[in-house]
Amino acid sequence: MSSRSCQMTLFINRGKSDDDLIIPLNDSLSGTLSMDFMCAKTTVMASPFLTEDRFWLNNKEQSFENKRLQNCLKEVRNRANPKLPEIKWKIAICSENNFPTAAGLASSAAGYACLVSALAALYEIDGDISDIARRGSGSACRSMYGGWVRWCKGLRDDGVDSIAKQIASVEHWPEIRVLILVVNDSRKKYSSTDGMKRTVETSEFLKYRVQNVVPLRIEAITSAIKEKDFNSFARITMEDSNQFHAVCLDTFPPCIYMNDTSHLIVELVHAYNEHKGTNKVAYTFDAGPNACLYLLEQEVYEFLSLVNYIFPPASGQKDYIRGIPVIEEQLPKESSLHIEPQRSGLLKYIIHTKLGDGPQRLYNPEAHLLNETGVPKK
Amino acid sequence: MSSRSCQMTLFINRGKSDDDLIIPLNDSLSGTLSMDFMCAKTTVMASPFLTEDRFWLNNKEQSFENKRLQNCLKEVRNRANPKLPEIKWKIAICSENNFPTAAGLASSAAGYACLVSALAALYEIDGDISDIARRGSGSACRSMYGGWVRWCKGLRDDGVDSIAKQIASVEHWPEIRVLILVVNDSRKKYSSTDGMKRTVETSEFLKYRVQNVVPLRIEAITSAIKEKDFNSFARITMEDSNQFHAVCLDTFPPCIYMNDTSHLIVELVHAYNEHKGTNKVAYTFDAGPNACLYLLEQEVYEFLSLVNYIFPPASGQKDYIRGIPVIEEQLPKESSLHIEPQRSGLLKYIIHTKLGDGPQRLYNPEAHLLNETGVPKK
């Protein structure tokens, strides 16, 4: 049983409240990216002939005792028909993703969404299973649906109502494009889980944000998406990204995820929007320095030219702009904005992509990652 | 009539509320630095023989129509004895400061404190004049006193009760030392006045901070200073610096004053404090990337060695560590912290100084910056 699933990106970042059940402090909202350029792929296999549970991730065998994996597996089996023989069989799991793990692009969300989708197919479970994916990696619950997805924090202590809901499909707003600017970064990486725990313990602003700011923004951005009001969508997205990082900075000791290049991207987006007289591009940053930018298709050529001019690739770099092909005309080498080109190599590369449809089951046996004995083909 | 005055550094940053009167949103607190290494110096002269008002700053003549200068001058004359003949005479003003203007070290606070002190001496005014200095540059009001100074925001619309008060003298805690790490920065400079205005207009966090956080912290840090409780003093100072910058980041578009080097300094201080098991060093950042660090005299040698190891000077650089001389033994080239030495030249230089006594009148005619005809000697 194989599935693939996509990476997603945040508009409204969440705060964590329960570490084990992974119940968030606030609702959050994100777009699910297309699987054309970035995706996770998982094959699961159950068989009476397997003698032990095994798990491979990106061609390396992992411990099956991983708590989050165990939580997902246990919950999927709970919901399956107890008469299903597969429930008692040992299983093999093989996962891989095609985006660089070191790039800080939250591959675990895609990975767990994919894993839970495959397990649900294996054990023949229907209905919403985003709460199961959530127990693997919080953000994975949103990746269970395509398009625009809201993670409702829920009210119950057991997390059963902490689930994802699609608020609009990809087709609703097909012109939306996404640019991911992967930033070169030499600074120490923080664990976002540890950081968020410290934020909950020490930030004076977090509670205010969760109670007074996020609920209004979630409603406002949902309306903006439904009305396809890009200007408002962009403003809320940027404001909320900034406020999320402000809360991280208000943590003691502070959590700093953005770096100087991230802030240059922020300046560039604001300068571009000011030049255009309205918000044409929106940035959002997760727990790392990489920028995720939203814009309409009609804006891609001009804005991408500007990014290419201001952030030139390292010398000799190939494939600087990846994903949806851009017309390889001579990109303009001038800018009407008062921002000087930076030294080359501040960005590793750029991914040009769009939103997608969420996890997909793969029926073609050639797509399976495991051979008939439950061992990776590679 | 000549005075000199010192630079000061913030613990609790203020938010601005009134632009013209310069009345702040919240109380703030700072230490006034010694004039041994950084100071402003001003000579004012009134004479019936002067035919026009003139003003020189750092050897360049400036417009006398400067609104802030006019506000200060008007207010000083209002309080003088109206029978004093000097009030009707034209005046010459000459100011200079010995710290690099481009370093972002808030020379206007020292400058206006110095100017208002000199004008007060000229027009024979007694009593508190910190509210007058405030109208030149908000922070200047705190620089009117030495040691530890609180700027009480006041309650009146006309700002008459928005004044500075000394909460402890230098002698109260003589072991306090200050390290100013002047950071190399290539990014665009923001005007802190414009930035603060935008913060007042757009930050959701600012109001919460002003009403709920700052009042408690001001009391807590005042107690910590009075009790010479360095651990608490340091924690509040760092928390508040971080929260001030969090509010700047929560502004739309965001104001970013700290850069990657600033954040490396933050990491270094936290790593050092963790290693020591208590807060031995505190950082605070104003509207720029430079760090102002507080520590006790006994900690200077070890911590400065560490800074010198982790932030090596640019090759060939002289006078990297300025101010109070440090014993020039071979500074240790190893560190017990898990922070790698950075590439050289991230810091321009380091100033090692302490707190001081506030503005001082200079009686020696050789110290005067103007000659007998009211023109700069230089």
From TrEMBL, chains A, B:
GO molecular function, one term: diphosphomevalonate decarboxylase activity
E.C. no: 4.1.1.33
Ranges where the Diphosphomevalonate decarboxylase-like N-terminal domain occurs: 14-164
Domain Mvd1 C-terminal: 178-361
KW Transmembrane (keyword) present: no
GO biological process: cholesterol biosynthetic process; isopentenyl diphosphate biosynthetic process, mevalonate pathway
Example of a GO cellular component annotation carried by this entry: cytosol
Pathways per UniProt: Steroid biosynthesis; cholesterol biosynthesis
Enzyme class label: lyase
Coiled-coil intervals, chain numbering: none
Keywords in alphabetical order: ATP-binding, Cholesterol biosynthesis, Cholesterol metabolism, Lipid biosynthesis, Lipid metabolism, Lyase, Nucleotide-binding, Steroid biosynthesis, Steroid metabolism, Sterol biosynthesis, Sterol metabolism
Entries under InterPro entries matching the protein: GHMP_kinase_C_sf, Mev_decarb, Mev_diP_decarb, MVD-like_N, Mvd1_C, Ribosomal_Su5_D2-typ_SF, Ribsml_uS5_D2-typ_fold_subgr
A Pfam cross-reference name: MDD_C
Reactions it catalyzes: (R)-5-diphosphomevalonate + ATP = isopentenyl diphosphate + ADP + phosphate + CO2
Annotated function: Catalyzes the ATP dependent decarboxylation of (R)-5-diphosphomevalonate to form isopentenyl diphosphate (IPP). Functions in the mevalonate (MVA) pathway leading to isopentenyl diphosphate (IPP), a key precursor for the biosynthesis of isoprenoids and sterol synthesis.
UniProt record similarity statement: Belongs to the diphosphomevalonate decarboxylase family.
Full protein name: Diphosphomevalonate decarboxylase
